[in-house]
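Recap quiz, item 2
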Amino acid sequence: MKKILGTTLLAMTLLLPTTTFAAQSEINLPTFNLNGELSVMKALNQRISSRNFIDKDLTAEQLAKILWAANGVNRYDTQKRVNPAALGIYSVEVYAVTREGIYLYDAENHKLKLVAEGDFRSLTTTGQSFVAKAAVNLVYVETPDVWSNARKTLPRDAQISFANISVGAMVQSVALAAQTENLGNCVRGSINRAEFAKVAKLSDGKNILLAQSVGFVN
Ligand SMILES: Cc1cc2nc3c(=O)[nH]c(=O)nc-3n(C[C@H](O)[C@H](O)[C@H](O)COP(=O)(O)O)c2cc1C
């Protein structure tokens, strides 16, 4: 995936079928075209939290777009990303919870890595029923380990605070990207953290910060 993102993304040879992801331990996500999109100002004007999801899967391209907006690389020479992070230390990982399973988004390779097979969408909420219908629920998880390899570190409270600030940028980027596909989104702080951590096999110290439902709406 060298230089996937310029002003125009080249159509990739590796286009996937729309939904049948199950049982693949790694999924190469397709690239997508940035031409002819909604303007940022129009997308901002239309931003809203949606909860009227219908249970319909995204295309591979839509999923790729959402994940790239959430945590993708936009400068392949430096591996820097769409969303800012303090000191350029990307301490927030994004999990994609779909009908097929829980996947970790590998930003550097624009891939999904299967973590658990099965429909665990309802596990990402403490009881809001719309969540189980949203095509994908993103779960934003802080991974403090990345600081151990950093050139410079920060006190733990600053690491957490800056991770939350990055997540704010990430969810807004996803909201705007979703709007370009006429998809709804809802940021959610209400998450069944204990259950999700168990099923997603999160190691000790990982910190679930926020979730975001994205999908087709009525
Ligand atoms: C940090 C944060 C946590 C939120 N948690 C939830 C949540 O758990 N469930 C939910 O339905 N909406 C949640 N929301 C969405 C807010 O309820 C929503 O943004 C607010 O009502 C304003 O509506 P609007 O986004 O349509 O402008 C959350 C928003 C933020 C920023």
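The chain has four helices and nine strands.
The pocket of flavin mononucleotide is lined by residues 48-49, 51, 128, 186-190 (CB under 6 Å).
End of item.
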